[in-house]
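cache lookup: miss for this entity combination. No prior model stored, computing from scratch. Input as submitted by user K.M.:
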Amino acid sequence: MNRFAALLDRLTYEHGRNNKIRLMTDYFRHTPDPERGYALAALTGALSFQHAKAGLIRALIAERTDPVLFGLSYDYVGDLSETVALMWPTDPSQKPNAIPSLSEVIETFSTLGKSQLPAQLARWLDALDETGRWALLKLVTGGLRIGVSARLAKTAAAALGGKDVTDIELMWSGLEPPYLDLFAWLEGRGDIPSTTDPAPFRPAMLAHAIEPPDFEKLDAADFSAEWKWDGIRVQAAAGTNDDGERVARLYSRTGEDISKSFPDLVESLRFNGAIDGELLIVREGRVQSFNVLQQRLNRKTVNAKLLNEFPAHLRAYDLLFESGEDLRDKPFIERRARLEKFVGALNDPRVDVSQLVPFETWDELTAARGNPASAGAGEDADAVEGVMLKRRDSTYVPGRPKGPWWKWKRDPFTVDAVLMYAQRGHGKRSSYYSDYTFGVWTTGENGDELVPVGKAYFGFTDEELLQIDRFVRRHTVDRFGPVREVTHDPDTGLVLEVAFEGLQRSTRHKSGLAMRFPRISRLRWDKPPREADRLEALEKLLGSVEKDGASADAPLVPEPSAT
Amino acid sequence: MRAEDILLPTPAGVCCKSGGFHIDPTRPVDKAVITHGHSDHARAGHGAVLATQETLDIMRLRYGENFAGSTQALRYGETVALGGVSVTLHPAGHVLGSAQVLVEKGGFRAVASGDYKDVRDPTCAPFELVPCDLFITEATFGLPVFRHSRTQDEIAKLLRSVELFPERAHLVGAYSLGKAQRVIALIREAGYDKTIYLHGAMEKITRYYEERGIPLEPFELVKGSKKFELAGTITLCPPSAIKDLWTRRFPDPVACFASGWMRVRARARQGGVELPLVISDHADWDGLTATIKATGASEIWVTHGQEDALVHWSTQQGLRARPLDIVGYGDEDESDGVSDAEQAGNSA
């Protein structure tokens, strides 16, 4: 448990992706089975046991500490698990309990009765040190939150054997903690684990963003185009296992099993194969905006009301497998033809095929992208976020190969906002002010004032970062820990052109709205802050999004066309 | 006799009327007894200063020759009569030269402990328990959540990270006086014998420690080293420097911070620390409470830090306890830093 705790501890502070991988790989290399396997399970969220409730933890600490001291401590630390981990009393005169291994904790926890839980937890807490207790409490309350995705943890495991994470993704759903066969294979001591899973995840093929100069090198006749729907890219896999049972799963594009959140759609996956597609909310035949879909996401419980109000739908792009036959090395047009037949045979209202966008020349496609409604998307045009270009002869290659597939997103919305606060970045950017809070004008009690509308920390070049950093240091008017407030008067300040994909209402922000995917698109040194945009303009845009969906082609400030 | 007959808390520090002196006054006074060299306790401009030789040396290094009208050095255990009281200094285990001040009058013993810690430190004399009637304690880490780790575990964490990331530089933020030298000594004890690099602000004090017979070498200043040469090395710098322009001379630096504050995650994250090292020169909660009990004192004054919790605890133990509202202690962290402007100049 101590090693695992030390790993978690270090991961919580580490921001760099590659450094996180290094830390995990180092742990897997130096930690024996089955301990490391359970750690991999914890990191990938593959453990399923009844989590301990905060109330139980509170009761344990209340029995052991003075309430005033606990109150002062909790107030200072601000996190229950951490407070308890730090102030858990230990009696140095007592012989300490044996430090539990992670395996012991997980194995015991999954079989323990509810009534035995508090005493067992207390025995473990007695045995561990501060970091160990913290990790234990995070683990049993189900709140690791260490900024590591399942895929990142698998990548670190793959690195142990110099393998590709894709290989692990392929077999993952057939593996069980503590993954002895997986580690044996990674260390060259065993064969590749065989998977008899009828519905495994196949790593997704992704596209590069197309830039105007790219078109010159491409022949429109080589490509097929389809709408890029603004939902969640998913893979739907289904089949029958050795025992004759039906298995159907829905995966995110990174391979996370999200079936539990979409039981309504999983029920419709009555086929043998794997479909690449987009998860959408469709009401009365109309695709809803991403804002609507978001209300279905990240819910702890999926109840009947939610299922009813936000019916999930799969819009199919591609067919990877059909009845055990791997189609991925077939050309796209062939897969596409098979897909249409496949979905036709399924004949389920929750699953349909994404329509192709007919075009002969790039100009025709430009026109279609500019007006999806009249180019076939019809009433669903609001849920289109651009077009996808796929070479007609492209095979389905995992990862993001350059050339076969391109995404051509609609132009973003833009707004001219004023830089208000800047915060230091992390890792390599830790000496730079690289996270920016920006605001737009609104009418306040004392005339016009700026109200923050968002935060962005990318979109600028390295050179622009240096310029902004210099501006921040020279125009600081106040400091709050790592945050600096910079001059933002009508006449002095920095105007940022912020590009974003959408807007939604938010109670968390003072301005009442939140931007989707905001980034700095240009520095407007030429513009005085007084000429920046007003909140009313954003509200108007939001109003049109809510009413009939925003037309991405009517940006707040017209963006020069990408072509 | 009452405690207040011998020592009197004032906003400028604890005053001994019959001895005619203040202890660690925060404003200039005629006569001061100084517990240790940190800038929040040892200020320039007093008439006469009584302290250990090391504390006087450190004040001279930091403030220049004329930091006080006159000075008098006292060895640990040596007693002097001042006015109607006698004064003895005892090791406080905080930094080199740090002392607790025992003031006696008519059989009543009062101890002003300054800052102290009751755990091993290879760079200074160990804390000595001085039985007394009145004990004046700090409370920097006066909450039960503050329990410092074993220093060797923290150093092992640092060295393991240096090994794992050989292409990166490790920057360890540490207060220039005491903590930096202790961290270096602990690294040496762990068997690391390569050159350790120093920020310019640490040079004088570190050389002074070395002169006093505390082996820290080899060390050298960062200034002048090329970026690639700093890969895989350890550099000690003031805490404020680990996140500033100065760090751009290092290859992909890992920001470490050696401090008792690192026990609390929010604190570490707020400072942008990537590798927190829980190493403190102050007693932790267990240290504070054990020391208070062991002195046998029936009256406890708490000077600075988390007074509420320690006063509450003392009261629960049946002791008379009160917080002292002395303004200005506990600022060494701030004053020890180097401002952005200085940093910018430094990096030019």
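stored under new cache key. Residues 151-279 of chain B form a domain with the Rossmann fold fold (CATH 3.40.50).
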